[in-house]
């Protein structure tokens, strides 16, 4: 066991504070990672505040982890000391179900082990990346290509794969019209990726406040959803709508923007139930769907794609003592566009 410094929420809705946690000894197939940077995801806030239901405390959040390998177990073949690596939203799964065998570990039918607020196979709680070190099985670690700066790569371990996976699955590319709802931590990465895939990209945001940013990030068009005329002008326009916001929407209005056989894919998870009229998908064989993160192979594919196209997250680097302030700013949409913790400050 190794004692490491971390930031944890001692109880639901409590401010995060500096503490220490125990990391397991490095096993045969384990990788010990010196965490260099950890992104702050909105889902961290949902879980710390029990917005998605009862959680485990103390909680060390963080599933956007970028660092450097400092030790490997004797059976490790994929990584060596000094390698630049990342860890995303899960650190294990059953490995034997059909989904795991297909590289879709995020949909493990026996339940994937989440990087934090989970329980490992050893029965111990999992602690995330707001810490100085983490121990992870090599099969759930990915390589960060040299073309990506570690601080800008960290958010890709959640925001990147959460947007890349559905865009990839629904075949975003040349000839396709993609709308990204929300230009926040997820949405700004989604715009970059959809543009790099070759799609025609539109941002749908509440106002035009971030229009200049959206166009610089790769959007071809930018519309305000606060203007009812937007929904009249864009009826039947899009092949894919990627909804990145975690608040209830007027799904009838948004689904009307889809072409025949178009899909609206939700990657944000509201804390409250949402309503939908079935007739809003009936007319043009539209699809209302959702997508989680990606499996380990697709996460590596995403990182390689981002490196090839020079895509990193737009970040604001903070020290650990700014975490609680950063949470409030995320809730106020006051970040351009992802907070990343310099874990040397923990």
Structure description:
- The protein is 23% helix and 26% strand.
- With 346 residues, the protein is of the alpha/beta class.
- The protein has two domains: 2-158 and 294-345, Medium-chain alcohol dehydrogenases, catalytic domain (Quinone Oxidoreductase, Chain A, domain 1), CATH 3.90.180.10; 160-290, NAD(P)-binding Rossmann-like Domain (Rossmann fold).
- Strands 3, 4, 5, 8, 9, 16 and 17 form a seven-stranded mixed beta sheet that branches. A six-stranded parallel beta sheet has the order 12-11-10-13-14-15, with helices on one face. The protein has a two-stranded antiparallel sheet with strand order 1-2.
- Helix 9 (279-282) links the parallel strand 14 and strand 15 (287-290).
- It is globular and about 60 Å long.
- The mean pLDDT is 96.
């Amino acid at each position: 066991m190794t004692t490491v410094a971390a930031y944890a929420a001692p109880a639901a809705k409590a401010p995060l504070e500096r503490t220490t946690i125990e990391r397991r000894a490095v096993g045969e197939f384990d990788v010990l990672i010196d965490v260099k940077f950890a992104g702050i995801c909105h889902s961290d806030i949902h879980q710390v505040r029990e917005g998605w239901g009862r959680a485990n405390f103390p909680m060390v959040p963080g599933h956007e982890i970028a660092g450097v390998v400092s030790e490997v177990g004797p059976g490790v073949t994929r990584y060596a000391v000094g390698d630049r690596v990342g860890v995303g939203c899960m650190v294990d799964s059953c490995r034997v179900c059909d989904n795991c065998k297909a590289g879709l570990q995020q949909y493990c039918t026996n339940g994937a082990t989440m990087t934090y607020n989970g329980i490992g196979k050893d029965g111990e709680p999992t602690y995330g990346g707001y810490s100085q070190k983490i121990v992870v099985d090599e099969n759930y670690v990915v390589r960060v290509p040299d073309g990506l700066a570690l601080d800008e790569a960290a958010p890709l371990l959640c925001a990147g794969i959460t947007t890349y996976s559905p865009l990839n699955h629904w075949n975003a590319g040349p000839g396709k019209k993609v709308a990204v709802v929300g230009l926040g931590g997820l949405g700004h990465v989604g715009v970059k990726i959809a543009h790099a895939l070759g799609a025609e990209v539109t941002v749908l945001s509440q106002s035009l406040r971030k229009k200049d940013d959206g166009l610089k990030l790769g959007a071809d068009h930018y519309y305000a959803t606060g203007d009812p005329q937007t929904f009249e002008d864009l009826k039947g326009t899009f092949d894919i709508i990627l909804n990145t916001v975690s608040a209830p929407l007027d799904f009838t209005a948004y689904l009307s923007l889809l072409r025949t056989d178009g899909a609206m894919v939700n990657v944000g998870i509201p804390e409250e139930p949402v309503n939908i009229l079935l007739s809003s998908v009936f007319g043009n064989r539209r699809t209302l769907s959702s997508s989680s993160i990606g499996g380990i192979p697709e996460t590596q594919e995403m990182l390689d794609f981002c490196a090839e196209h020079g895509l990193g997250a737009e970040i604001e680097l903070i020290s650990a003592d700014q975490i609680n302030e950063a949470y409030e700013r995320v809730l106020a949409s006051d970040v351009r566009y992802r907070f990343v913790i310099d874990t040397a400050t923990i």
